Amino acid sequence: MTEATERSLLAGKSALITGASSGIGAAAARVFCREGAAVTLVARREPQLAALTHELRAAGHRAQYVVADVSHTQDVARAVETALTTYGHLDAAFNNAGIGATPAPLHLLDEHTYDTIMDTNVRGVWNSMRHEIRAMLTDRGGAIVNNSSTAGLVATPVTAAYIASKHAVLGLTKAAANEYAAQNIRVNAIAPGTTRSEMIDTWLRENPAIEKTLLTSAPLPRIAHPTEIAEAAAWLCSDRASYIIGTTLTVDGGWTTR
After folding, report:
1. Is the entire prediction scored with pTM above 0.90?
2. Residues ≥6 apart with Cβ < 8 Å to 47
């Protein structure tokens, strides 16, 4: 074993990452591979997944992708089965897939928008965890990290469905952590602050005045890079976080300390 391998957080592990086509998910794919994992990348957009997988393989990493919608049970089952078939086991999962919505007061929030957000952000995490946990129960356990948000910890105006969904992710995380700890499955969450992504960039283009507010509302006055969030997820998935279950690691530049 080389010195570099000894330092790797995820050497020898198989990891599944949802929402991997861009933003935090794509950054996680690169970080997890750098740390020694063989990855199965899951998202709905095949061109982006294919390009990222090609990039990772060209760099000498083990990577594959599955086009899937995490709100569909059969899609998630197929993704997990692909990971098991290719790598023989599933040791880690980063359930990152999520969506936002155009801000609107709660009384103007339409049913379709609410249902769509809850289907991806909550049902998608539940779908993912139940298939991942089944795979981990039959082998050697594992670690799961669910991507919530600071919106899972505090409330802000005109984003009620998103806030509800991200609070629900933390509830699912705690419930699973408590239920499966004895089977050597650790479940935790991360709560990123504002992070560069397609969703955030679109939101800031539509609401340019908000960026100044964001930059002055946290002790670290900047927007996070996706890699900074991915690093936290990789650590929680690693054996170096072996005594941590059911917790939420806040990665927000101190925004929630205000």
Report:
1. yes
2. none
Q: Is 41 within 8 Å of 119 (Cβ atoms)?
A: no
Query: Up-side HSE of residue 205: CA atoms within 13 Å toward CB?
Result: 7
Residue 76's domain comprises 3-197+226-251
Between β-strands 248-251 and 185-192, what pairing exists: parallel, antiparallel or unpaired?
A: parallel
As a whole number, mean pLDDT of residues 109-122 equals: 97
Residues 54-92 have pLDDT tens digits of: 999 999 999 999 999 999 999 999 999 999 999 999 999
What residues are annotated to the active site?
Answer: 162
Whether 105 contacts 34, CB under 8 Å: no
Residues 127, 50 contacting (CB under 8 angstroms): no
Q: Which two tokens stand for residue 85?
A: 């078939």
Q: How far apart are CA 246 and CA 171, in angstroms?
A: 9
Let me know: does 31 contact 3? Beta carbons within 8 Å. no
In the chain, how many domains are there?
1
CATH number at residue 20: 3.40.50.720
Range list of β-strands (E), 109-176: 142-147
Alpha helices in 13-110 (DSSP H): 23-34, 46-58, 73-87
State how far the Cα of 235 lies from the Cα of 232, in Å rounded to an integer: 5
